[in-house]
Amino acid sequence: MSALWQSVKIFVRLQWIDRVNTSAFLIGLSIQTAVLCLSIFDKSQNSGEAFALAVRASLLNIIGITLFAAMSSLANDIRFGTFSYLLLSREHIFWIVFKRCLANTVVSFSSVVFPFAVAVVKFPELASVNLVLALLAIFVAVSCAGFQIALVLNTLDHPIRGVPWMRYFYLLVGLNMLPFAWIEWSSKFLPFYWILDLHALEGGSLFAQFAASVGLSLGWTLVAWVLLAHKTLRSVESLQNKSKLKVA
Amino acid sequence: MKRFCLPYLDYVRSVGVGTYLTQVLVHEPLSALILFLVMNPLFSNAWDWQVLASSHVYFVPYFALLSAMSSLESEHFLGVSEEIHQRPLALWLTRLPFVFSQTVLPVAFFATLVVLYLPSGWMQLGFLLFYWAIFASLGIFFIANWGFRKEKSVNNSVNLVPWFLALGPGPFLEARHYPWFAVFPGSGLKSGNYEIEIAKGILLVIVLAWLIIRSKTPRPMRIFRLG
User: Fold this and answer.
1) Where exactly are the structural domains of chain A?
2) Chain A contact for B34, CB < 8 A?
3) What predicted TM-score, i.e. pTM, was given to this entire model?
């Protein structure tokens, strides 16, 4: 237990050191969260709107941070030449990547909590077990999304060029933001869609939607791991060789 | 004329025409679309052009400031800062093609919407064009004064732009009138209170003049550091 706590502490501390160097984290956790909280308080007409806007605001914050965390979770090891330590570690490399994504969600989770806190201040009836389940579902969805993003981006030669496309995918499609029927149809395959109206449900359908969200997160993570793990590793190794050649 | 366009053309050549066009035609409009949609509940009402047109007071300064501040990227490839250091006119002219080509499409889009959908559209179009010019120049000279030190600080300012402007009238706050709206662009346009807008315009011109004078003095650290 003590070893587990030590491991959690060191991963969270390392993620914090990495994150405070990115603009997305600094701005996302300060003025961006403040503006979005004010906007939720300003714009929401009823509790349903406040909840949906809080989901959108929190995911806009944390997906922006997670994209850079996931990109650098392998790319920094190539850049700084520490990738061999990662490969020679006793733990499996993708288990370490997943732990990094979990730690990133921990250090940036206040940007998720504050929008919901503002929604609860405006509409106190939102404070219920549904809210706890929604926060839990967002935690799982964002951690798993970070792992999937890390796998997808590191198959590319320039991971940074894939960042905006992943952002559009998770925000515009995943949150069903555009008024097209096919967007709504395809957003049902992502976990975020099932969180948007979690506040109004009770009993069986509440747990069904929560389970759908968590299941889709874990399912897509498994799919990404099965399809991309090998390819990512090969591409990362070849990138490392390329950077070695450049240095030489 | 040609020598002021050369830095821009060289920048486009360095990053690649495809990358540049993707940046201008896809990433910038879609990022702005996310900012417009994220706090807009499209649950019941359909797409509202009038709401989009009236948010030009947010998006035109956003595009102008963003592209003017990120025009410092051309420094990575060109290293012309020594030539344009303490020469504001040369600085402004070399950055102008960069900023103009990145912002002309969204500005034309919002100008069309403003003329078509808003009452007293031509008056608002005048303010739109003024804000385009003044915020582009402010961005260029803000970076000329404080941007040459570190890449990190430029990144932070570019990330700060949408959220600083979001504190004013725009897609984020619209239901109430907050007291601090007075210092943000466009607070008087909705109510037809043009005097306060003109006063703000004069204030912005004074700030720009101060930035230009300040950029003529030597910088404490002239070397641009990456990372």
Assistant:
1) 16-247
2) yes
3) 0.90
